[in-house]
Automatic annotation (TrEMBL):
Feature: compositional bias, Basic and acidic residues: 28-37, 87-98
Gene Ontology CC annotations of this record: eukaryotic 43S preinitiation complex; eukaryotic 48S preinitiation complex; eukaryotic translation initiation factor 3 complex
Subcellular location(s) of the protein: Cytoplasm
GO molecular function, one term: translation initiation factor binding
Species whose genome carries this gene: Lasiosphaeris hirsuta
Name this protein carries in UniProt: Eukaryotic translation initiation factor 3 subunit C
Amino acid sequence: MSRFFRGGDDSSSESSSDEEELYSGDEAEPKVAKDVAVDSDDESEEEDEEEEASDSSDSDAGAQKKGLSRFLLDQESSEEENSDAEETTKVKSAKDKRHDELDATIALILNGQKINDWGSIANEFDKLNRQVVKLLDGGKAPKAYIKCIAELEDFMNETQAKQKVTPKKMNATNARGLNTVKQRIKKNNKDYQAQIDAFRKNSDDFMESDEEEEKPAPKPKVRFQDFALDATAEEDDEGFATVGKGGRALLFTPESIFKHLRTILESRGKKNTDRLEQIKVMEKLFEVAVTPYQKIRVLMTLVSARFDLGSGAATSMPLEHWKASERELSTLLQILEKEKDHIVIEGAEEWEDDDKPPTLEGGAKYIKVPGSIVSFIERLDDELTRSLQAIDPHTSEYIERLTDEGSLYNIIFQGLLYYEMLRKDATLEVPQDSLNRIIQRRLDHIYFKPSQVIKILEENSWKQVPSNIDSSITPRNETNDAGQLINTVCSYLFENSEGIIRARAMLCQIYFLALHDDYYRARDMMLTSHLQESIANFDINSQILYNRTLVQVGLCAFRKGLVYDAQNTLQEICGSGRQKELLAQGVMIQRYSQVTPEQERLEKQRQLPFHMHINLELLECVYLTCSMLLEIPLLAQTGSSPDVKKRVISKTYRRMLEYHERQIFTGPPENTRDHVMQASKALAAGEWKKATHFIHSIKIWELMPDTDDIKAMLAKQIQEEGLRTYLFTYAPFYDTLAVETLSGMFELDSRKVSAVVSKMISHEELAAALDQVTETVIFRKGVELSRLQSLALTLSDKASALIETNERTLEQRTQGSTNAFNRKDGRGGQRGGGQRGGRGGARTGGNTQRQAGGTQFTGGALGAAVRG
């Protein structure tokens, strides 16, 4: 129970409990402590225990006093106060106090060595190094400190040797402390190597020597400032020098570069690490760097540190640091281009000696620096994408940020040339995957752009490269044609890659071909790739690219006038109602969707930058227009007849059409959907000119190249489909119909009308014949059923189905009664008789798949429009 919660007299209870803890026996002598592990925290605890022991002895002596006498001083206590006052008059100098602190820390380290407690040794060793900074005299450390660190290093080596001979598992704290001391003591002892050597040569003479050393030059005044400020070893005009947080002057010299880099790398990723300070320090290190190796090491560490600023899940890299990273990466590639004997390659061994840089020894051709240029380029590209995602695309800031894509493309191009140079040397093991990755990044930046933009990017990139350097994959003289460039890059990836990279290369080439109206080649590549069968096994980004490519192929088919192919291609994406999600152009908020915050965050990270978007309004307009040109003739053909198998081409379009029919009042069209629905109604009524006017009034066509050609193609398609709809609707009212009449009604050439009618007859869509001599369409009436006959057949089929259902129910209830079977067999025999069979023969004698239209098209508002 804590002494703060005890009842009664606090002083008496406290003194009695402390006496039990600190004294043993009747003589109240202090217990003798055995050797125990001591750390920095135990020291303070011992001091507290000594104070409590002294308090307890005082309280024991005065335990008999009660009441007011406890607060009065007697003769004995006053004498003790006088002696204490005399002792406090003896003041130690600050230097002596620091020496005492140093000796106490050394004693704790020695105590830790006795019991092999490396956890406390590591803590006290850090404390010791902080204390000795204040006792340095002209760069010379106190001899007690030199003795301690020399013996500690020997003890550490001895412990490691024992561990190798007789492996003994250490606990986690000891093992961590041993590793900490091992990492720090070698670097620390290098600063005092001369004194340590003198101590080991003759320790007695070293400790007993009292020779005065030469007085050091007067130290400059010290100005304490943050580690991140302009830290140089030179004195300024006032004689001040920069001092870091540890108390030492920060000396940024070429010899100290690697030590500073090592310190920064060790602190990277730890808590409470000021990354901006580290970046400023490395900028100063790059200024004092002399050799190419130093510059390469500093630049690689600096770029990595800048990337850490954008490591958050929802934050992008600051703009100024991105631009700085781009400049530094470009500088790094320029240095590697000039210094042919220095290469940055994956898998190289780390150089651990911070005192001297590596040299070419043993006939080596290169000084290898471990690192990955392609990883830097990929991260720089990803950070630009994240930045564009976070900016409002309708502002000038987005346009300004988008201009950085040109400089990024130059970096990608220079990195490709560097990897090509490394691949030329057969002695270097450069992974093919690294080259494929950087080529894929180059392809990702050009596949969706027009040829003119790609040509400008390539020209600007080659201007940054010396004239004596060329590419073996994409030669300088072959990049004038964007199509040839895309073909060359994709062909290289087809041959030298597999899996996702190969599939993405094929999708990028298909996208480029479709964008530039090469439909048939794009379609053939899409079909022969068989990606539609295996795309579900790829990653999400590849599936998004597949969806984008599919949509682009559909738009290309529409521009070519292939309405059926366009609608069939776009059906998978546009018919789902999730175009935004499938194309990674936004997240649709659904009413009953169960989307976790993590899933929503991932969806937002996958979004494409705005300049890569496909216009969804244009996509919807193309899809609905194609659906109208296919569905209206189909509705006219089928109508409400039960004899013709109903077929739905676009459920989305059918729902919109039904909704439009249910509206009591329809005003002038306001948006794209309204225009298409009004055009559908006019086309169903045979008013093809009005339908053409509604379609041409859609302003979204201005976004497509060659707008006039698109509108002319649509007018031609509407004329043809209007002719088909008219024939399906009014065929029952004609016995013969002149081709010339149809040509005048729809303003089509007679040859075109004959071709359309012949196609309908050959596909068994129209029960008619074409007399080419008289240019007349002759309709056949024999196989047609009147509306009354169709309704009677429907009623008969429904009645038969109802009887069979009742009989099955009766059979289950009577448990298989004989009468039920007899009744069923009797009726079955009658149904199989001549009347039904004869009627069936009459029905099957004609066109069972497609019935000639006319009287069947009677339902809905469209039927009312036709009849009215």
